[in-house]
Design a protein that fits this description.
alpha+beta, Fructose-1,6-Bisphosphatase, Chain A, domain 1, D-Maltodextrin-Binding Protein, domain 2, 2 domains, 14 strands
Length: 264
């Protein structure tokens, strides 16, 4: 399979969906927003973006299954599956805050094979395919080589499910605030991972995210030279939602710090 050719086609799909998101943002009204769970929102924009992406991807790989956030399509026993988040950063989007992204990954049962994350606000298209390196708008990207966690810029998110995540979130912030060089939150897991891939962040971590939140971005990170594991350091992350990503050089330090938090 020609992963490069597939990825190039997926970039065009992501850009098309991103243009749709931008065109609809000013038309979206509060009564058109549905709360799936407490502070977890969806609108017709998410659903229409997903339908658009699914229809285009069926033309690229007709026999692939789908793992989608909004349930537009499903998978059964297909060898390959598309993993789609049609609008990562919905809360940002409905408030008119940057950034948000279209995320499309291709995987089999064992690994991610290609990924595209398109930031519609900044017109930044991150993409990668297995063995092909990581790219941003046609330019190769790489993680940085910062090795001192006390100088690291880390991304830490606080997801919508506060009742389940509050203890973990407070522990992470209380522990890393003052330990590392700085903490940032941007409301999009995929773009945060891409920020690590492009050297903007040194690391990022979040617990309980969906496969559509990290699949596409994960191969971009790996091809850029980064590292991704579960919270316990296990590299078998592909079907799990407790994720640490880093530039690689501070990864063990992050795992060790997470272990310290878990024991406290």
């Amino acid at each position: 399979m020609d992963y490069q050719s597939i990825t190039e086609k997926v970039c065009a799909v992501a850009r098309e969906a991103g243009a749709y998101l931008k065109s609809e943002q000013s038309k979206l009204h509060e009564e058109q927003i549905v709360q799936k769970h407490s502070h977890d929102y969806v609108s017709y924009v998410d659903k229409e973006s997903e339908r658009l992406v699914v229809s285009r991807l069926k033309e690229i790989l007709p026999d692939a299954g789908f793992i989608t956030e909004e349930g537009t399509a499903t998978r059964h026993d297909e060898t390959y599956s598309w993993v789609i988040d049609p609008l990562d950063g919905t809360t940002n989007y409905i408030h008119g805050y940057h950034s948000y992204a279209v995320c499309i990954g291709l995987r089999d049962a064992r690994e991610v094979l290609a990924g595209v994350v398109y930031d519609a606000c900044l017109d930044e298209c991150f993409y990668a395919w297995k063995g092909g390196g990581a790219w941003l708008n046609g330019k190769a990207i790489h993680t940085n080589q910062h090795h001192d966690i006390t100088q690291a810029l880390l991304g830490i998110e606080l997801p919508y499910d506060a009742d389940d995540y509050r203890r973990t979130g407070l522990h992470l912030i209380n522990h890393f605030y003052g330990l590392c060089g700085g903490i940032r939150m941007n409301g999009s897991a995929a773009l945060a991972i891409c920020n690590v891939a492009s050297g903007r962040f040194d690391g990022w971590l979040e617990r309980g995210i969906g496969l559509w939140d990290h699949t596409a971005a994960s191969i971009i990170l790996l091809e850029a030279g980064g590292c991704i594991t579960r919270f316990d350091g296990n590299p078998d992350y592909i079907d799990h939602g407790d994720i640490i990503v880093s530039n690689g050089t501070i990864h063990q330090a992050l795992v060790d710090e997470i272990s310290f938090i878990s024991q406290s």
